[in-house]
Specification:
With 290 residues, the protein is an all-alpha fold. Helix content is 84%, strand content 0%. The protein starts with a helix and ends in a 6-residue tail after the last helix.
């Protein structure tokens, strides 16, 4: 009995030790994954500190460090005015402009892209012009926007919409054209109506391209928004705040605006498009590659 009890206790001790080792290894792997995810941020902060130190040493210019920017951000979040408005006002105004312009570009791009992908004549007439629009840099629309709308809100919305429209239309048209013709013929043989054919065959088959087009258009619109606010803005917005901070020498405030721009772009990508793409692939069983 004593030997059996001793063996049992030894086995339990061995099992407990093995469990502790596995738990320690699991925590080690989790810590490694966390460090890997944080390494780009840490590297960026290190480079930022080095650049700030070099600029201050070589040129004698007070280059904002991450610590300076963080302090300025806390002041802004606490209600400190930045060019007559709070940082919340500047951010919300930019997001509202971006959302409205992207909505216009998305509706127009989806409609034109679907029509061009489905009807050959429509594609031959419109797609060459749309491809030319895609080649025009967003900032090149500044004189056109000012001539048509003047300096103000409408010019900003026009620049964002026209820049985001082209990639959406081209990507959607390509996705519709790549839908397997066998599926379309089978659906017609089964007597599906045009509405059912559109929602059950064309849209699912073109979804990866539609999502990619919207993602590209959204990114283009966000970049052009900041530039448009710098030049044809109406006194508010992140881009306007960045360009105006040069007169007040509030460079830390400008860096705060740059950080907000990066965070918003990453949030839209990681919280909207990445889950939407995964959900689309899982729901429809589609490949990520054409």
């Amino acid at each position: 009995m004593n030997m059996r009890s001793g063996n049992t206790l030894a086995g339990r001790a061995w099992t407990d030790a093995g469990g502790r080792r596995q738990a320690a290894m699991a925590w080690g792997w989790k810590l490694c994954r966390i460090c890997m995810r944080l390494s780009p941020l840490l590297l960026m902060l290190l480079l930022w500190f080095m650049i700030a130190w070099l600029v201050s040493w070589l040129r004698g210019v007070a280059f904002p460090t991450p610590a300076d920017t963080a302090v300025r951000l806390l002041n802004m979040l606490d209600g400190s005015r930045f060019l007559e408005y709070s940082i919340y006002r500047h951010t919300c105004v930019s997001l509202a402009r971006w959302a409205l312009s992207f909505f216009i570009a998305a509706v127009a791009g989806l409609a034109v892209g679907i029509a061009a992908g489905w009807w050959r004549a429509f594609e031959q007439v419109l797609m060459p012009a749309i491809q030319v629009l895609q080649l025009v840099p967003g900032l090149a629309w500044i004189p056109v926007a000012i001539l048509i709308f003047g300096i103000g809100e409408s010019a900003t919305l026009f620049m964002i919409s026209v820049t985001a429209f082209a990639p959406i239309a081209i990507s959607v048209a390509g996705g519709v054209k790549r839908v397997d013709e066998l599926y379309v013929r089978a659906a017609r043989m089964m007597g599906l109506s045009r509405r059912m054919l559109f929602f059950n065959i064309l849209v699912p088959g073109a979804l990866p391209h539609i999502i990619n087009g919207l993602r590209i258009g959204l990114g283009n619109g966000w970049r052009v928004l900041v530039a448009a606010e710098m030049i044809v803005g109406s006194g508010t917005g992140l881009g306007y705040a960045i360009i105006q901070s040069r007169w007040t020498l509030d460079f830390a405030g400008a860096f705060v605006c740059l950080g907000i721009i990066c965070v918003v772009g990453l949030a839209i990508e990681q919280l909207v498009f990445a889950p939407l793409e995964r959900r689309t692939v899982e729901l429809w069983g589609l490949s990520r590659h054409p």
